[in-house]
């Protein structure tokens, strides 16, 4: 027997990581494909040893390890010599579960140990030929059973095997592989993450038995183009669920070809802080189930993975051969391996979808109603065995906003373990519930572990504690960690539950040290529960429980890094059982104060959370007295008043106008469409349906006839956008009514039931951008002209845009964006369209887009098709129709290309004519202020102040209506536009609708505007503004970085930078700077979606447009209060509200992403300072757009000479300086400053080389 090198897991991982830092590692290809080519029959599989075996063996490829060992060894050798660094053992089905189909369970250990030995022998032979070390990975397949999916469609809670059975089978396989000399463990083709968890647990168990650890590799399978595993997880959810095993490589294999897999690998490359591995199939199978992608074609595709820097290891799966691996190895040989990103320490959970508890998330709602101890309804359902209705309770919690669901089955008359398993198995079959993470809640640890064995995602355990001593606590924590779960740690030790501040902090600190220092438990996966106890019970000692929890939370978050704080909120109000309004008010008050100091999670009834600022003032004050223990008689006062807070309700009336109802139905439909009247459209549509042969004829007849009238009126300027959007609402509701009839017709007699659209247009707001009003308007206008619109919404990545475009066979793609980073994303989409061979026209639109940018940046990236900038919705129909028409398309494109060449040339000449100064000269010409006579006013407070709820009614006077009307493409200013003979009537009608909706918004409190402002001691240092922790101005709190104009100026004009308006530090003057974030409310998206579901685009767009105006009005109002009150540098300012839009006041509020500071990344500093996401729910997307879209942020600068300006184009010297000051990579900086760069970064790099 060949002598093999001893296995040392630590040395193997070090050697592989060293090689991975130097080159992209290569894995082998398919065993089955090569074995098939050998043409083995039943006798070959059986061999002499198994000639009389009871089961057929043909197809049992693993058995060939014992019956055809020379052939298997040769296949491994061929792969090694083709360029593989690592080969897998031929043990994909090497478990007792998989081999049971062949009756071969008894040979599992031998099969795996011999399989590993053969591969190791092949590795040694290869090494002897060329001196290059090779490695062997013990391959572990998924088995032919699933732990997350029932094999019986009629019984979704049934499982054919248990977690423990699968774990035992995997453990036997791992022992055999290690005995045969496997150097790595590769758990691959994972289509059910729970099976993989069992494999990991088994592997760790064997490692512990032997005191040896080998590197682990994980590879999942996205089963189809849905982008999910067979058990329903997204790639990121899959990563979150398994990252606890610290895999050396993580990636995907099988099911998809390289082309289809690329987007998913790109996503993993971004989020995985380990080596990323991809080994796709040789394309997709043909109609005969065979793979026919050539080695050359596959090598080119996988080589592009490497060139794009998204992989560290590549190989092949089904259909690949040594020739494929040779082509892949050659394609990646000269490519640099992917750089492993640094990932922030955040709790990353998952159900079917990922959930990351980022620091900006203010609070996580854990749904409490799936808890038999906390919900009488749920308890009754579970005890009666009505699990279907119990699932509805969970579903309602998720729909109401629960980001995690707490499941507890602790009830005296229940078999808690059985109930937990049954319920969680059923949850796994309900995607709308299973998409969120689960918190497994029990006082019995055996119930917790049984629950963990049912959950494929990354769960939370609620809870563990030291009540039975450290040893039990450590044991429980290790078990939780083996399943990858985060843990809730109760403030409970051997002496009992902590009820004082001192005990809460002491126990949590002790637990933290044990978990992090002794076990290595990730601190970000630790959630402390310092015990929420009932207050206002009448027992004096209980009065301080609320304050103790809140103060303990503050200390825990400050002293125990990366951890979280949670609690069972309903415990607090236990004394007021039966009085839900008072209980909800107590919870709102408690959460408000606890969240302010760092509580970021709570077990709550997600559907019954009151808003702190909307509580009746008297009730809020009474509850605060109780929760904060502010008065000795607080309990009595709340009890006395409690019964008064139990009522509510209101009624509404509605009137309609019936005067036009006497016309024939065709004319009534036309009238409804032209006038946007929905009240009778369903009745009229039904009447029209009764009079035609097919329901489709109603669409193609009176409905399209009416829409043609609308189109003619719009085209001739007799109708305006808001009216067209109303028409579309009517049309949508009519079509929605007819669709069931068309579907029934299709089923009955084969009629296709489809409308004949003029063309198909895909529209999307690009990745990182949340703004969509303009896009929606364009979509409505096109739909009114009989185009089929596929609207992908907002924040849409390029891969999804192109995937859907290809599947749907669209005629045109339209991209929209509002913020400047969206311009680069549009260029990226265009380049991807070029790379993937698209030829359809690409329309560009949005506030930051322009004809020049389209011609200079986007159009050159997409040579196969044509890029067209569309100025507004009124031009969209003409552009689209001319591009779709075969007769006009060629001439239109030729004309646009000629126009864009001229635009690009003119732009280049214009830029050459502009003289720009070196940065040093620009800095020598700043905006000069005489600081000697300036005494900055000190704000009334420093740091931040939250305005938790602002009445919309107070903001209405500050609304600037001109931009609102411009959203709908009216040309003119408010209110003069109402006098315009053409636009006036339509503009006034829109304005009246807006006023009516605004009244409804105010009366019904649709929005809950929130804001946060702050002030800090500040001084300028060069082009930067430094903020300080205190008046000593010695410790820098944060820095806002500025950009300076570099255009050569005449007439003594300055090269201004925003820092010029803040007193220089060397002046000795103590200046200040403020900042703010405001939003119209988080409710905007939900309300708009409600209208969209009702086919009411008009009101959906209207509510978004009003939300934008409310946010801007809020920013204007806060700035006024800053000048008069909070900073108070202009206390006597007297400017009429309607004059504020002209900005004739002292001071400015410049915003990142706007001309004075075009860099959107500067928002991060402001949001971190104000803790805007945690405090008011406004967050930044990956492109630094604000969500919700109806939000405004910026700085406050007070100097009377400060003014708005534009930085315009900047040169390389300033970008290098700016990147250095920000500590940002130069290429990353150029990415974010792309629209203002006065040079081509690519050209600069080529010149530099």
UniProtKB/TrEMBL annotation:
The gene coding this protein: metH
CDD domains documented for this protein: methionine_synthase_B12_BD, MeTr
SUPFAM superfamilies reported for this sequence: Cobalamin (vitamin B12)-binding domain, Dihydropteroate synthetase-like, Homocysteine S-methyltransferase, Methionine synthase activation domain-like, Methionine synthase domain
Enzyme Commission code(s) on record: 2.1.1.13
PANTHER family in the record: METHIONINE SYNTHASE (PTHR45833)
Family: Belongs to the vitamin-B12 dependent methionine synthase family.
One Gene Ontology cellular component: cytosol
Domain Pterin-binding: 363-628
Binding site for S-adenosyl-L-methionine: 960, 1149, 1204-1205
Residue stretches making up the B12-binding domain: 758-894
Segments forming domain Hcy-binding: 13-332
Protein name (record): Methionine synthase
């Amino acid at each position: 027997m060949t002598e093999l090198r001893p296995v040392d897991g630590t040395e193997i991982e070090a050697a592989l990581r060293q090689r991975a830092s130097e080159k992209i590692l290569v894995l082998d290809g398919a065993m089955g494909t090569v074995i098939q080519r050998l043409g083995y029959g039943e006798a070959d599989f059986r061999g002499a040893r198994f000639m009389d075996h009871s089961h057929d063996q043909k197809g049992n490829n693993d058995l060939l390890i014992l019956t055809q060992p020379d052939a298997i060894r040769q296949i491994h050798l061929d792969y090694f010599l083709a360029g593989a660094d690592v080969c897998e053992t031929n043990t994909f089905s090497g478990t007792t579960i998989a081999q049971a189909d062949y009756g071969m369970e008894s040979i599992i250990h031998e099969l795996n140990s011999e399989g590993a030995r053969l591969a190791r022998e092949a590795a040694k032979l290869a090494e002897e030929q060329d001196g290059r070390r090779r490695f062997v990975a013990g391959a572990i397949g998924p088995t032919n059973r699933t732990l997350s999916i029932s094999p019986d469609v009629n019984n979704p809670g049934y499982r054919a095997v248990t977690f423990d059975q699968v774990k035992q089978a995997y453990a036997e396989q791992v022992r055999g592989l290690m005995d045969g000399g496997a150097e790595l463990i590769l758990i691959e083709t994972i289509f059910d993450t729970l099976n993989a968890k069992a494999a990991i647990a088994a592997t760790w168990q064997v490692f512990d038995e032997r005191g040896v650890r080998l590197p682990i590799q994980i590879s999942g399978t996205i089963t189809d183009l849905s982008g999910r595993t067979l058990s329903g997880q997204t790639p990121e959810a899959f990563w979150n669920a398994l990252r606890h095993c610290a895999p050396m490589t993580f990636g995907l294999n099988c099911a998809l070809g390289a082309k289809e897999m690329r987007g998913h690998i790109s996503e993993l490359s971004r989020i995985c802080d380990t080596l990323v591995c991809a080994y796709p199939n040789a394309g997709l199978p043909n109609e005969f189930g065979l793979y026919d992608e050539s080695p050359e074609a596959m090598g080119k595709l996988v080589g592009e993975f490497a060139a794009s820097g998204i992989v560290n290891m590549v190989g092949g799966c089904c259909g690949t051969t040594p020739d494929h691996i040779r082509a892949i190895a050659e394609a990646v040989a000269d490519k640099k391996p992917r750089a492993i990103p640094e990932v922030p320490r955040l709790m990353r959970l998952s159900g079917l979808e990922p959930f990351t508890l980022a620091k900006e998330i203010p609070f996580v709602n854990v749904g409490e109603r799936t808890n038999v101890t906390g919900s009488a309804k749920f308890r009754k359902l579970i005890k009666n065995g009505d699990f279907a209705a119990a699932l509805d309770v969970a579903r309602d919690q998720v729909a109401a906003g629960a980001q995690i669901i707490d499941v507890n089955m602790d009830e005296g008359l229940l078999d808690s373990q059985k109930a937990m398993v049954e319920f969680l198995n059923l949850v796994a079959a309900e995607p709308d519930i299973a998409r969120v993470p689960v918190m497994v809640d029990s006082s019995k640890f055996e119930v917790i572990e049984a629950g963990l064995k049912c959950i494929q995602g990354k769960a939370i355990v609620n809870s563990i504690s030291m009540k039975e001593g450290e040893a039990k606590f450590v044991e429980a924590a290790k078990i939780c960690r083996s399943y990858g779960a985060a843990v809730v740690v109760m403030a409970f030790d051997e002496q009992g539950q902590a009820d004082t501040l001192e005990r809460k902090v002491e126990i949590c600190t002790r637990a933290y040290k044990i978990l992090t220092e002794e076990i290595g438990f990730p601190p970000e996966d630790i959630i402390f529960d310092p015990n929420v106890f009932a207050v206002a019970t009448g027992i004096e000692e209980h009065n301080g429980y609320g304050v103790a929890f809140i103060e303990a939370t503050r200390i825990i978050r400050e002293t125990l890094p990366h951890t979280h704080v949670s609690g069972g909120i309903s415990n607090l109000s236990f004394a007021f059982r039966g009085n839900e309004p008072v209980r909800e008010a107590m919870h709102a008050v408690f959460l408000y104060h606890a969240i302010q100091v760092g509580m970021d999670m709570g077990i709550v009834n997600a559907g019954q959370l009151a808003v702190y600022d909307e509580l009746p003032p008297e009730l809020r004050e009474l509850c605060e007295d109780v929760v904060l223990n502010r008065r000795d008689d607080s309990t009595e006062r709340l009890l006395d008043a409690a019964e008064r807070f139990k009522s509510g309700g209101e009624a509404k009336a509605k009137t309609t106008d019936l005067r036009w109802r006497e016309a024939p139905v065709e004319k009534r439909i036309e009238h409804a469409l032209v006038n946007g009247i929905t009240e009778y459209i369903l009745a009229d549509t039904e009447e029209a349906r009764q009079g035609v042969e097919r329901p489709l004829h109603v669409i193609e007849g009176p409905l399209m006839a009416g829409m043609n009238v609308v189109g003619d009126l719009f085209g001739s300027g007799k109708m305006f956008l808001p009216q067209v959007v109303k028409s579309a609402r009517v049309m949508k509701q009519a079509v929605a009514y007819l669709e069931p009839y068309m579907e029934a017709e299709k089923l009955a007699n084969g009629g296709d039931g489809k409308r004949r659209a003029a063309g198909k247009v895909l529209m999307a707001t690009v990745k990182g951008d949340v703004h969509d009003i303009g896009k929606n308007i364009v979509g409505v206008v096109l739909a009114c002209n009989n185009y089929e619109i596929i609207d992908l919404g907002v924040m849409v990545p390029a891969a999804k845009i192109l995937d859907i475009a290809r599947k749907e066979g669209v005629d045109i793609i339209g991209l929209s964006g509002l913020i400047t980073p969206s311009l680069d994303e549009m260029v990226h989409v265009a380049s991807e369209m070029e790379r993937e061979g698209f030829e359809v026209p690409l329309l560009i639109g949005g506030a930051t887009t322009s004809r020049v940018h389209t011609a200079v940046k986007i159009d050159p990236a997409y040579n196969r098709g044509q890029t067209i900038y569309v100025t507004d919705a009124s031009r969209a129909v003409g552009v689209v129709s001319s591009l779709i028409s075969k007769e006009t398309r060629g001439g239109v494109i030729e004309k646009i290309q000629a126009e864009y060449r001229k635009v690009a040339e003119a732009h280049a000449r214009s830029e050459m004519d502009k003289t720009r100064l070196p940065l040093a000269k620009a800095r020598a010409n700043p905006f000069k202020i005489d600081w000697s006579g300036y005494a900055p006013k000190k704000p009334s407070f420093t740091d931040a102040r939250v305005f938790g709820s602002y009445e919309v009614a107070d903001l209405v006077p500050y609304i600037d209506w001109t931009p609102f009307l411009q959203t709908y493409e009216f040309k003119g200013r408010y209110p003069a536009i109402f006098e315009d003979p053409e636009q006036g009537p339509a503009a006034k009608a829109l304005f009246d609708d807006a006023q009516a909706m605004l009244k409804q918004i105010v009366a019904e409190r649709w929005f809950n505007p929130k804001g946060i402002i702050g002030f800090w001691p500040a001084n300028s240092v060069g082009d930067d503004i430094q903020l300080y922790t205190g008046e000593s101005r010695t410790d820098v709190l944060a820095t806002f970085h500025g950009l300076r104009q570099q255009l050569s100026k005449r007439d003594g004009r300055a090269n201004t930078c925003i820092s010029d308006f803040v007193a220089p530090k060397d002046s000795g003057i103590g200046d200040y700077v403020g900042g703010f974030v405001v939003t119209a409310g988080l409710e905007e998206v939900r309300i708009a979606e409600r209208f969209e579901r009702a086919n009411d685009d008009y009101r959906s767009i209207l509510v978004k447009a009003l939300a934008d105006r409310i946010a801007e009005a809020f920013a204007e109002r806060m700035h006024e209060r800053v000048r008069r009150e909070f900073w108070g540098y202009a206390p006597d300012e007297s400017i009429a509200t309607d004059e504020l839009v002209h900005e004739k006041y002292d001071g400015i509020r410049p915003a990142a992403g706007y001309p004075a500071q075009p860099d959107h990344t500067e928002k991060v500093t402001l949001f971190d300072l104000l803790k805007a996401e945690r405090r008011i729910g406004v967050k930044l997307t990956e492109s630094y757009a604000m969500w919700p879209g109806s939000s405004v942020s910026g700085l406050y600068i007070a100097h009377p000479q400060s003014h708005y300006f534009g930085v315009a184009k900047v040169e390389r010297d300033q970008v290098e300086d700016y990147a250095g000051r920000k500590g940002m990579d130069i290429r990353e900086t150029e990415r974010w400053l792309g629209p203002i760069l006065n040079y081509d970064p690519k050209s600069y790099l080529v010149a530099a080389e």
